[in-house]
Amino acid sequence: MIEKYIYKNNQKMRLGYTTGSCAAAAAKAAVQMLLTGKQVSYVELMTPKGISLTLEVLDARISGKEASCAIEKDAGDDPDVTNGIKIYAAVRKCQEPGIHIDGGEGVGRVTRDGLEQPVGSAAINSVPRAMIRKSVEETCRRFGYEGGMSVIISIPEGMELARKTFNPRLGIQGGISVLGTSGIVEPMSETALIETIRMEVRMRHTQGHRCLVLAPGNYGLDFLKEYNPKLLEHCVKYSNFLGEALDAAVEYGFQGVLLAGHIGKLVKLAGGIMNTHSRNADARMEILTAHAALSGADQDTSKALMSCVTTDEALDILRDAGLLEPVMNRLMERMQFYADHRTGGAFSCAVITFSQKHGILGKTDNVEEVLRNLYL
Question: What is the pTM of this model?
């Protein structure tokens, strides 16, 4: 257990350590056991974040030319599905010089282009690979071994856990990924989710897509399935991280983006809000009310809008006041303005918004242009 804390949303929360740290620590301990013939109870690991870990070594075994052990994953106070699982490393000397890292049981295999590792490789990302390599090399030098070393990382629970992750959708089959850029898990960290979104965007680009479709969640995916099922082939789900998804589309050189989402999410874009989680900003009713007032809403209508809990309730009021169309026209203009501002005009960004009750509420003028480019 790591006794370091951060504060998130006024709560004291304990840090944890990544699957990458576990894999590197297990490999380090296993190499020491192989080279000394003695079991190891604890192993020390310096993480890329600069935090040193002292981790208990579990299931230590030395048999013939191989040694293996496990480190238990501790996610701290982060709600991570991998918390408490064991990450194993099995090591053996080999004739070929260098450190050879691969995945065993429960570590996924990359099956699509565009991911961090090439097709056919174990889904052990670059920072964990570097951590494993460094730990093994340092231990070999410490005990005077100059030959090659094979390292197999395995996660017995990985195949079952993969069903609860994005891996199958990303094209990682047979298990989970070994991840971590800092070696440390920060509770409720958004970094891993943003990196997953970026990975999906990069994968679409590698697959040859010129234009990208973005949807915040399942409502958006369900809408696209009915609107035009072919759009799902180009789609990345961005959760609340619209700004980061648009940034990735710019970075990877897309020529256009179609953004499709429920009004409850996209109305925030009309206020320039790029992270749509309610803990960061809401302002749905304030934005709707402001545009209603600019479209001629009287004081009573404005008060009624500000009292609404859901956007569908607000849309009913706008419809009854004869203001739904003008308000939506204004909102679509502002959505496009802020999307273009975020991307710096790098490409044409079109927006469609809807509600389950009212159907399509608005489209920016460039929707058909982006749709045409999707199929060029």
Answer: 0.65
CB-based contact 261:215 (threshold 8 Å):
yes
Is 210 in a helix, a strand, or coil?
Answer: coil
CA distances from 344 to 85, 249, 338, 347 (A): 44, 12, 10, 8
- Asked if pLDDT for residue 352 goes beyond 70, the answer is yes
CB 85 within 8 A of CB 23: no
Q: Which helix (H) or strand (E) holds 56?
A: strand 52-56
Residue 322 token pair: 């004869």
* Ranges assigned E (strand) in the chain: 5-8, 11-14, 16-17, 42-46, 52-56, 58-63, 66-72, 86-94, 99-103, 109-110, 148-154, 172-173, 184-185, 211-215, 235-237, 256-262, 348-355, 359-363
Q: For the packed helices 299-306 and 311-320, what is the interaxial angle rounded to 10 degrees?
A: 160
Q: Which residue would you say has higher pLDDT here, 77 or 292?
A: 292
Alpha-carbon dihedral sign for residues 256, 248, 81, 127: positive
Cβ–Cβ < 8 Å for 27, 153? yes
CA gap 15, 263 in Å, rounded: 36
How far is 122 from 90, CA to CA, in rounded Å?
A: 15
Q: And the tokens for 103? A: 């995945």
- 375 burial level (CB within 10 Å; 0-12, 13-18, 19+): exposed
Q: To the nearest 10°, the Cα dihedral for 34, 36, 38, 42?
A: -80
For 219-247, the pLDDT digits (tens) are 899 899 999 999 999 999 998 999 999 99
Amino acid at 25: A
Helix (H/G/I), strand (E/B), else coil: 207: coil
Q: Are 109 and 172 in contact (CB under 8 A)?
A: yes
* Contact indicator for 292, 326 with CB cutoff of 8 Å: no
Residue carrying the six token digits 């991840």: 179
Q: Mean pLDDT over residues 14-40, rounded? A: 96
CA atoms within 13 A on the CB side of 86: 13
- Per-residue tokens: 221: 């995916």
What residues contact residue 167 under an 8 Å CB cut-off, 6+ apart? Answer: 108, 123, 173, 175, 176, 177
Which residues are CB-neighbours of 224 under 8 A, at least 6 positions away? 213, 215, 231, 232, 235, 260
